[in-house]
Specification:
With 513 residues, the chain is α+β, with helices and mostly antiparallel strands. It is 40% helix and 24% strand. The protein has a seven-stranded mixed sheet with strand order 3-9-10-16-13-12-11. Strands 20-19-21-22-23 form a five-stranded mixed sheet, sandwiched between helices. Helix 2 packs across helix 13 (376-387) and helix 5 runs antiparallel to helix 7. The chain is globular. The chain binds glycyl-adenosine-5'-phosphate. Residues 217, 219, 249, 251, 260-261, 264, 266, 268, 331-334, 371, 373-375, 377-378 line the site of glycyl-adenosine-5'-phosphate.
Length: 513
């Protein structure tokens, strides 16, 4: 199946099976805002738990907080967001559509990369086992030509972005003959800066109100609380503070479903360290976070690091963990070495000392910070895209199955009475009443067993049990496995032991190195 089709199918599957709905749908929706349905919220909660527990339970020097969306507006002045949290935008005069100039150029770079990959794939097919890919990439005139174009564009683009040279960004779009995907024309406006923060008013009277912002990242809530946590928790450097919460950005281009939203959720951890040790810690957190992702079993080839050339104003090293989505490798998580930028800025703007007293050095200093920041919704999307599978069965039928890691699946066990009579529904409910304390169970009695299995496959339920006439005599049930569709007869008393170990977040955490 073409990757574009996979993505379209994932989007409609999310809606059809209660994972994600467009927000305010009966009012025709609201751009780039989505709601999570009954299955989506379970999957999302499981992702959050996997992250939270891997941070807070697995590290004795990491604790969590929950700070507010509303914060003092000077915080955003100090952090640089009021002045520098901008994207370069450009409009097409014919379609009246607005784009991010940097995204248009990055898509053009990706087109060159695509062409190279297609050439290599064609050659791989032509030469079979004898294919020497490295040599082909070094010598094929067509590959070299596309590579040269890609590299030249990349260099010019990086320079323009580093200098935030808006005229040059526009000129690149013109020179590369980039057209608007809607109108097909090159009738572009100038490039302008656009601040991404949402503003609102706090206070009831016109004179007494103040303009505040919806937070565009959760991180600042950690920075301004770091000394509270350090003192009340008697934390010693190195230590971390983790937080999960909503963030808001008025994205210019909000496309690709839940990949880029205006209201989204972040899981961020700030790790406070001694200045000078940041590059070692940066390396360590890169490895730790990549291991967390790969532990889900989606294959190492689907992840890569993308080290930043253009560093944000606060960072001295930065990388993204990218996942292979149906629309290419895309950022899911950012890892930044943020130096002492944020804490120093808050000291300056608040006029209060927030230095750490190091008892070992008998000295005070402003800690450096390594940040890991991951979007819950992007993680959700990557998991859905990778798990969605259409499978041809021996009988010629196709089944849609969500091969979710069992620990993340919304429902762990579906209990299905073969028929709605003869005491089977009561027996099925008895099983659920016993197991519901240990994992999420669902009761289903409508339609044939085959249809019910398909519905559970489609929401990724790893186990189904069928209660039939024999169950009432010998307390055994048919246990069916989602991925293999294998069925076996087991005692009801054995169910918990077979299932529990494979479906808990603990089972995932235990596999983490
Ligand atoms: N505190 C650092 C920070 O916010 P970021 O790279 O801007 O860094 C971190 O964001 C993560 O948040 C991204 O890797 C992405 O997963 C998620 N994210 C950012 N903007 C998003 C958006 N508009 N919609 C969904 N997720 C987003």
């Amino acid at each position: 199946m073409a990757q574009e089709d996979v993505f379209k199918k994932v989007v409609s599957h999310c809606k059809e099976y209660g994972f994600v709905f467009p927000s305010s749908e009966i009012y025709d929706g609201l751009g780039a805002v989505y709601d999570y349905g009954q299955n989506g919220v379970e999957l999302k909660n499981n992702i959050k738990q996997y992250w939270w527990q891997s941070m807070v339970l697995m590290h004795e020097n990491i604790v969590g907080i929950d700070s507010c969306v509303f914060m003092h507006p000077t915080i955003w002045k100090a952090s640089g967001h009021v002045d520098a949290f901008n994207d370069p935008l450009i409009d097409n005069r014919d379609s009246k559509k607005r784009y991010r100039a940097d995204v248009l150029i990055e898509e053009q770079i990706a087109k060159y990369e695509d062409k190279i990959e297609k050439e290599v794939a064609k050659a791989r097919k032509r030469f079979g086992d004898a294919f020497d890919e490295a040599k082909y990439r070094e010598t094929s005139p067509r590959v070299l030509e596309e590579q040269a174009k890609r590299d030249a564009l990349h260099e010019r683009y990086s320079k323009a972005m580093n200098a935030m040279d808006l005229d040059e960004l526009r000129q690149i779009i013109i020179d590369e003959e980039i057209v608007c995907p809607i109108s097909g024309t090159r009738n572009w406006t100038d490039v302008r800066q656009f601040n991404l923060m949402f503003k609102t008013e706090m206070g009831s009277t016109a004179d007494g109100s103040m303009t505040i912002y919806l937070r565009p990242e959760t991180a600042q809530g950690i920075f301004v609380n770091y000394l509270n946590v350090q003192k009340t928790g008697r934390m010693k450097i190195p230590f971390g503070i983790a937080q999960i919460g909503k963030a808001f950005r008025n994205e210019i281009v909000a496309r690709q479903f839940i990949f880029r939203m205006r209201e989204f959720e972040q899981m961020e951890m700030q790790f406070f360290i001694k200045p000078g040790t940041e590059l070692d810690w940066f390396k360590q957190w890169k490895e730790t976070r990549m291991a967390w992702h790969q532990n889900l079993g989606f294959g190492a080839e689907n992840y890569r690091f993308h080290d930043h050339e253009k560093l944000a104003h606060y960072a001295n090293a930065a990388t993204d963990i990218e996942f292979k989505m149906p629309f290419g490798f895309k950022e899911v998580e950012g890892i930044h070495s943020r130096t002492d930028f944020d804490l120093s800025q808050h000291e300056k703007f608040s006029g209060k000392s927030i230095k750490y007293f190091d008892p070992e050095l008998n000295d005070s200093y402003t800690p450096y910070v390594i940040e890991t920041s991951i979007g819950v919704d992007r993680m959700f999307l990557s998991i859905m895209c990778h798990s969605y599978c259409e499978e041809k069965l021996e009988n010629g039928e196709t089944r849609v199955v969500l091969r979710l890691p069992a620990a993340l699946a919304p429902v762990k066990l579906a209990v299905l009475p073969l028929v709605k009579k003869d005491g089977m529904p009561e027996k099925a409910r008895e099983i659920i009443d016993d197991l519901k304390f240990h994992f999420n169970c669902q009761y289903e009695e409508k339609d044939s067993i085959g249809k019910r299995y398909r519905r559970q496959d489609a929401i990724g339920t790893p186990y189904c049990v069928t209660v039939d006439g024999d169950t009432l005599k010998d307390d055994t049930v048919t246990l069916r496995f989602r991925d293999t569709m294998e069925q076996k007869r087991v005692k009801i008393s054995e169910l918990r032991g077979i299932i529990e170990d494979n479906v808990t977040i603990t089972s995932l955490l235990k596999k983490l190195k």
